[in-house]
């Protein structure tokens, strides 16, 4: 009995001890949970505080929608460096720059320069597209311009009478005439030209269809070589096919005209230049291949050697836009030095009746004979012949 009582007592003691142990472990678990909760809350609070700090920093940060005012003056300074004002050699920074007004002032300055350049171009353009030399008063304007542009040429202008450009033959007749006179002395060319006009009926009858109707045999009978007959027919065919026409030739600019006419067999650069000066009266034509003009430039500027054609543009640039008139005086200058030349111009296009009248008039030996410049090239032995 005593053992059972003792065993029961131990059992009760263990039973009592177990609830006590369980009761003691519960606060420990609660404390652990509370500490975990406290830690989590602390972390959350720190996160919220950091987020709040970030938001406050962002809200306190200045907005950058516009560039800082200190960077605005860089634009006008750059403009001033690119377009400096000669009167102000130093750039003075401004406390409160106004880029709009500065840009406006620079724009006004630039606009002023553009206006000045535009005015200069406006003054030059009418000169380049100057009127025909046959227009009233144009030759006088050209002479005044050349006197001011070249003092050496001014002396020649005072020595010789002014040129005249009064030929109004049709372009087809003038081109036909130039082909017939190629590489011939004036008398021989005039004789052939007279017979050619007789075949056509008159100078007014020199038309593309009339020339095409003439056979090579008929042309050979009046002294026209077979090669020149081919040249005449090629010119007439280009008129008949519409490649060329009198109205188109008159309205073409110099470069286009040069390109189109050199397409005709037997018409070279020298022929085109002569045609442009003496038939179309173009004011700014420089025959760079013409021996007479090159020789005149050599004498005028006292050059040691005859200038090459490639040098002529640079040497005669000051004559623009009246190089045709200046070339005319180069021919006169060479003639005044005693170079022999024939009596009447070929390419000036004077009428056949005028040729005959001038041939019949006696020449006084004491009076210097003023010759039309283009004809002098036949006896000067021009380096570039008509058909070249």
Structural notes for this entry:
The protein has 388 residues and is mainly alpha-helical. Among the domains are: 137-166 and 268-351 and 369-388, Endonuclease Iii, domain 2; 169-259, Hypothetical protein, domain 2 (Endonuclease III, domain 1, Orthogonal Bundle). The protein has helices at residues 2-60, 74-82, 99-128, 138-149, 151-159, 171-180, 186-200, 208-213, 216-221, 226-240, 246-251, 254-261, 269-278, 291-300, 309-315, 323-336, 352-360, 376-380. Helix 4 (138-149) crosses helix 5 (151-159), helix 12 packs across helix 13 (269-278) and helix 14 (291-300) packs across helix 16. The termini are far apart. The relative contact order is 0.09.
CATH first level of the domain at 137-166 and 268-351 and 369-388: Mainly Alpha
The CATH topology of the domain at 137-166 and 268-351 and 369-388: Endonuclease Iii, domain 2
Enumerate how many helices there are, as a single number.
18
Overall geometry comes to: elongated
Structural class, by secondary structure, is mainly alpha
CATH structural architecture of the domain at 137-166 and 268-351 and 369-388: Orthogonal Bundle
* Biggest beta sheet summary: none
Total strand segments: 0
In terms of DSSP E residues, the strand content is under 5%
Distance between the termini: 160 Å
Radius of gyration: 50 Å
Unreliable stretches, pLDDT < 50, 5 or more residues?
1-33, 53-59, 86-110, 122-129, 340-388
State the helicity in percent bands.
55-70%
Mean pLDDT, all residues:
72
Along the chain, the helix and strand elements come as HHHHHHHHHHHHHHHHHH
Domain HhH-GPD: 180-335
Protein name: HhH-GPD domain-containing protein
Organism: Acacia crassicarpa
Region (Disordered): 1-38, 56-122, 350-371
């Amino acid at each position: 009995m005593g053992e059972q009582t003792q065993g029961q007592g131990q059992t009760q003691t263990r039973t009592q001890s177990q609830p006590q142990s369980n009761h003691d472990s519960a606060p420990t678990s609660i404390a652990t949970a509370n500490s975990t909760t406290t830690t989590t809350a602390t972390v959350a609070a720190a996160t919220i505080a950091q987020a709040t700090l970030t938001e406050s920093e962002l809200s306190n940060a200045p907005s950058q929608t516009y560039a800082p005012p200190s960077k605005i003056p860089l634009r006008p300074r750059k403009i001033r460096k690119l377009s400096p004002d000669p009167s102000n050699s130093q750039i003075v920074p401004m406390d409160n720059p106004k880029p709009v007004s500065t840009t406006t002032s620079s724009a006004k300055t630039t606009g002023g320069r553009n206006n000045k350049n535009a005015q200069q171009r406006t003054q030059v353009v009418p000169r380049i597209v100057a009127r025909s030399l046959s227009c009233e008063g144009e030759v006088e304007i050209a002479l005044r311009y050349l006197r001011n542009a070249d003092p050496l040429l001014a002396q020649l202008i005072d020595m010789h009478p002014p040129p005249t450009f009064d030929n109004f033959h049709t372009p087809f007749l003038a081109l036909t005439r130039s082909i017939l006179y190629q590489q011939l002395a004036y008398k021989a060319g005039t004789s052939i030209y007279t017979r050619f006009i007789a075949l056509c009926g008159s100078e007014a009858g020199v038309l593309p269809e009339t020339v095409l109707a003439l056979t090579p045999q008929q042309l050979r009978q009046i002294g026209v070589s077979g090669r020149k007959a081919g040249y005449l027919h090629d010119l007439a065919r280009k008129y008949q096919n519409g490649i060329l026409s009198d109205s188109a030739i008159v309205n073409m600019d110099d470069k286009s005209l040069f390109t189109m006419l050199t397409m005709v067999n037997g018409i070279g650069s020298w022929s085109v230049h002569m045609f442009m000066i003496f038939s179309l009266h173009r004011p700014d034509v420089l025959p760079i291949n013409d021996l007479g003009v090159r020789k005149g430039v050599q004498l005028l500027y006292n050059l040691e050697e005859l200038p090459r054609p490639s040098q002529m543009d640079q040497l005669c640039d000051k004559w623009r836009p009246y190089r045709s008139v200046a070339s005319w005086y180069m021919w006169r200058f060479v003639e005044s030095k005693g170079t022999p030349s024939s009596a009447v111009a070929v390419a000036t296009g004077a009428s056949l009746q005028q040729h005959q009248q001038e041939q019949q008039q006696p020449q006084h030996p004491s009076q210097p004979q003023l010759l039309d410049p283009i004809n002098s090239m036949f006896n000067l032995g021009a380096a570039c012949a008509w058909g070249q």
